[in-house]
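Pasting as-is:
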Amino acid sequence: MQIFPGRYGGHLEGDFVLFLIGARINRLSKIFTFLPIARAMGRMQRELLSDPAHGCLHIDNWFGRTVLSVQYWRSFEALEAYSRRPDAEHLPAWADFNRTVRDNGDVGIWHETYLVNEGQFEAIYGNMPRFGLAVAGEHTKITPASTAAMRSGRRKEDQAPIDAY
């Protein structure tokens, strides 16, 4: 994995959606009830990334007692269309979850959807591989004078509170 020394940003033209989705194993003794959910998530993610027409731009996953998937989507409409497609992996997985663990408390699922307007975000990566928004969109070098307020469009001019250089 290539590390990019210095400061870089991530940029995506236009509006986009940040979708956080995950599961939590509530009863560790019932971990086996989580396995079908994990396999279904894997199938959905492979399906999403296999065809850019779905509108999913990038996915990062973290695993622990609570599993987190960070997804960047081109639009809310693309995310919703995928979730409702009768020929996609999502609806059978959702139905299976509802049949097997929906109300028993063994495993919880959650998601949060953020509709991000163009220019209303900022991202910085210091001494990192290409990551997150910089994978979903462009990976760009940031000038030493750049601040979060400037990158997010809050202020055209700004000065960092410390001299980082």
